[in-house]
Write a sequence for this structure.
């Protein structure tokens, strides 16, 4: 396939970008539908230089850490990338950084201002963390 970083699909005239998703955009998660029919390029684990945070309904990645982040790679056209920018409130809440992937480069959303009380996810895997957290949550009794 070659480099996905800026692959030009001449027949459709579409510029393709790779995006690394690590939270609610992953398969089986609440916002996966935002990716539409974007092709899955595969699983990926970043270099161990980030911190993954649990912000409640969604995760956030910040730099200056020692954790490898687990996620998925998708090929998007510029329109879909702009659509994801809306979801991620880019550039106010999140920024984007290029990371190295086997196919070249991919965009990754990074959180700008993490709250001081955010819970760190040591595994770097939001889906695994969420499944574990839900499994151990017990319903409260009402009288």
């Amino acid at each position: 396939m070659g480099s996905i970083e800026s692959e030009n699909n001449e027949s459709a005239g579409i510029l393709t970008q790779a995006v690394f998703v690590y939270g609610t955009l992953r398969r089986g998660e609440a916002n996966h539908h935002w990716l539409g029919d974007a092709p899955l390029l595969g699983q990926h684990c970043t270099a161990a230089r980030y911190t993954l945070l649990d912000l409640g309904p969604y995760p956030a990645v910040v730099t200056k850490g020692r954790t490898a982040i687990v996620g998925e790679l998708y090929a998007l056209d510029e329109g879909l990338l702009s659509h994801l920018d809306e979801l991620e409130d880019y550039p106010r809440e999140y920024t984007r950084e290029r990371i190295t992937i086997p196919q070249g480069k991919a965009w990754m959303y990074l959180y700008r201002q993490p709250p001081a009380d955010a819970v760190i996810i040591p595994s770097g895997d939001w889906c695994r963390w969420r499944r574990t957290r839900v499994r151990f949550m017990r319903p409260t009794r009402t009288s």
